[in-house]
Specification:
Bound molecules: iron/sulfur cluster
Strand order of the largest sheet: 3-11-10-5-6-7-8
Helix content: 40-55%
Number of strands: 14
Length: 644
């Protein structure tokens, strides 16, 4: 470390101390205790007041009543739980120990509930009685001041940006190419043998395939109550979380390898489940004869714009989709029909490449994944005339995603199917472990829009589903609320933010970045490189958003496993698993840590992504300033929603 770096390190540490000291010092300010009498009204799907703000040590007295059906009230982090009936009748839960030391619970009929708000922070209160389609999203917020953890998270977010910019000013050695790659096929015994099996993909896919089609049956003929239907719970709680938190960061598009939706079309087009049908004389460059017309996807729409639009359409009805089993079934059946229809006309997995609403962000986010399928030595590929990975060989199908592994330098369009590993006669394809955030190059505005849309939707869903505002839920839940005008306003705000406001703000920051760097760099190149910042940030934002569904609603998973069709079964004895959130008071803290990690990874990887186009480290830092502030802005919106 040279002397400049030492000085910078000292400055960064001093900034960290300040970032912690300032918000924590607010904690010690004296606040006089008060008593708050609150008339708490519960009505589908919110509470009034939705947000309650008190000081630590204040007494809170609720006078609850319901304006429609029976609701519940469960306050995270406090032993306060009651059932709210109409006309001001409530039943408060209390626990006691019997003579043998067993914990017993019972309900007391009350008209008021009193407690002392002695723990500072943000605490969500939730409905515990199934009250309708949006029951899992019926929440309110209690904020007990001083909310120091939120203030610490905000000042740490500023500190992260500041210290990264300070540190990178000292960083004179470019990092690209420095990340070590490990070929897992060489280092994990047995992996190569397993991946080379023709049956691997089928064996991994088939159990999920059967379960998936059972889910469709359950969506159509099982209970219509969303949080009692196995499809809704497993797909939109478990799968959605696993996709963002496990599949994408660890395996890129690994999900696409086992996705049951395009599988039937692929099997039909190949007329085979596992075996390769190799023909010696290629037909239009491929050594296979597929069914259908085998056209190529039109050049003009070989991009993500259609995926972006389809994703926005899907998201517009997001709250309906994730609470109505029939809507989910219709979506799946529509996708299945589209894949079967397209296979009659086009070769390759065109649905996955250009239409799948999930595939779009899976592709972009998989750029950050710690694994990648790549050529071991691209030179060997260049010299190999046959290019079996692209055209097919006796051992493997031609790349279904139309990718040439010899030149592939991003994960975006690699479906992880492992066909190229099987088809390569030179054994020149491996599965590599690499640092998080290694592919750092977006290639078009369609991809940039996709990552911005994903961020905006994470914010929009956080407000709609996790937030306390009943009127927003009503607006989004149009098929039940019938509030068409509110729904149209909701759509206008969502589409406007995703397609105009946030992209506009981001492009402004990149224009500013170009100006700060003396207009020396091509504007489009700079914008696309800088937009990489939003990929790690987006992944972590989605993990933070999805976390509460799992920690709060895991009992639904246990219930539907025992009673998958909602027919009163109890297969594993968990059909009556009580609503018992898992350390819910820790959710805001964990979400804060996740968001700060995403901010750090986004800016640091974004900086390294600039190394190829901006040689001077000072200019790189200058280019990074405004987009980093944009990332800081996004993180602070989410911090406010989760912790503030
Ligand atoms: S792109 Fe979509 S449909 Fe295709 S495999 Fe991936 S998730 Fe499934
Ligand atoms: S064949 Fe290879 S490059 Fe093509 S999608 Fe499958 S794993 Fe990726």
């Amino acid at each position: 470390m040279n002397s400049n770096q030492k000085k910078t390190s000292l400055l960064i540490i001093l900034c960290l101390l300040a970032a912690l000291a300032i918000p924590l010092s607010i904690r010690v300010l004296p606040r006089p205790g008060r008593t708050h009498r609150i008339d708490l009204e519960a009505v589908r799907y919110g509470y009034s007041p939705a947000k309650i703000i008190v000081n630590r040590g204040d007494s809170v007295i609720f006078k609850p009543t319901s304006k429609d059906v029976t609701h519940g009230f469960y306050l995270d982090g406090y032993p306060v739980e009651f059932i709210i009936k109409q006309q001001g009748i409530a039943y408060q839960k209390y626990t006691w120990e019997d003579e043998k030391g067993n914990l017993k619970t019972d309900w007391d009929k009350v008209s008021e509930i009193e407690f002392v708000a002695d723990k500072p922070g943000k605490f969500t209160f939730r409905c515990t009685q199934v009250c309708g389609n949006l029951h899992p999203f019926m929440t309110g917020e209690l904020i007990v001041r001083p909310n120091s953890l939120y203030h610490v998270a905000v000042s740490l977010s500023v500190w992260i940006v500041l210290s990264l910019l300070l540190w990178f000013r000292q960083d004179l050695k470019p990092k690209h190419g420095r990340g070590k790659k490990i070929n897992l096929m060489e280092s994990i015994p047995g992996l190569k043998w397993m991946v080379k099996r023709r049956s691997l993909q089928f064996m991994l896919l088939f159990p999920g395939f059967i379960i998936f089609y059972l889910f469709i049956i359950s969506s159509l003929w099982g209970t219509p109550v969303g949080n009692r239907n196995i499809t809704i719970i497993i797909v939109w709680i478990l799968w959605w979380f696993a996709l963002k938190a496990v599949f994408v960061p660890l395996g890129g598009r690994l999900w696409c390898m086992i996705c049951p939706l395009p599988a039937p079309a692929e099997w039909i087009s190949r007329r085979s489940l596992t075996a390769v049908r190799f023909i010696q004389k290629p037909i239009r460059g491929l050594h296979h004869r597929f069914i259908g017309l085998q056209k190529d996807w039109p050049e003009k729409i070989r991009n993500m714009w259609l995926q972006n639009i389809i994703f926005m359409l899907m998201i517009s009805f997001g709250i309906i989709l994730i609470t109505r089993p029939v809507a989910t079934a219709i979506l799946f059946l529509a996708i299945l029909a589209a894949t079967l229809f397209l296979v009659l006309f086009f070769r390759h997995r065109v649905f996955c490449l250009y239409l799948c609403p999930v595939g779009g962000f899976l592709g972009n986010y998989s750029m950050a994944s710690v694994t990648a399928i790549r050529a071991v030595d691209p030179e060997v590929c260049h010299k190999h005339r046959d290019k079996c990975c692209l055209s097919g060989g006796p051992g493997g199908w031609a790349c279904p995603w139309d990718q040439y592994i010899g030149e592939m330098n991003r994960n975006n369009y690699c479906g992880f199917c492992t066909e190229c590993i099987k088809s390569c006669p030179k054994d020149n394809v491996g599965i590599f472990l690499r640092p998080f955030g290694s592919d750092r190059m977006l290639k078009g505005y369609d991809e940039m829009y996709n990552v911005i849309i994903m961020l905006v939707v994470a914010i929009a869903f956080s407000i709609t589903m996790l937030g306390p505002y009943g009127f927003v839920k009503e607006a989004a839940n149009v098929t039940e609320s019938r509030q068409m005008l509110s729904f149209l306003i909701y759509l206008a705000v969502l589409w406007g933010a995703a397609l105009v406001v946030f992209p506009g703000l981001f492009i402004l920051t990149t224009k500013g970045a170009r100006r700060l760097t003396g207009n020396l760099i091509n504007g489009k190149d700079l914008t696309l490189r800088l937009s990489y910042i939003l990929i790690p940030l987006g992944i972590f934002a989605w993990i933070a958003f999805s976390l509460p569904s799992v920690m709060v609603n895991y009992n639904y998973i246990l219930i539907v496993l025992s009673d998958p069709l909602g027919l009163g079964w109890n297969l594993f004895g968990t059909a009556d698993a009580p609503f018992n959130p898992f350390y819910p008071e820790w959710i805001p803290v964990i979400q804060g840590v996740i968001l700060l990690t995403g901010l750090y990874l986004g800016i640091s990887r974004g900086y390294h992504g600039l190394e190829n186009i901006v040689q001077n480290p000072f200019l790189r830092v200058k280019a990074l300033i405004l987009p980093s502030l944009f990332a800081l802005f996004v993180v602070n919106i989410l911090l406010k929603l989760y912790m503030g």
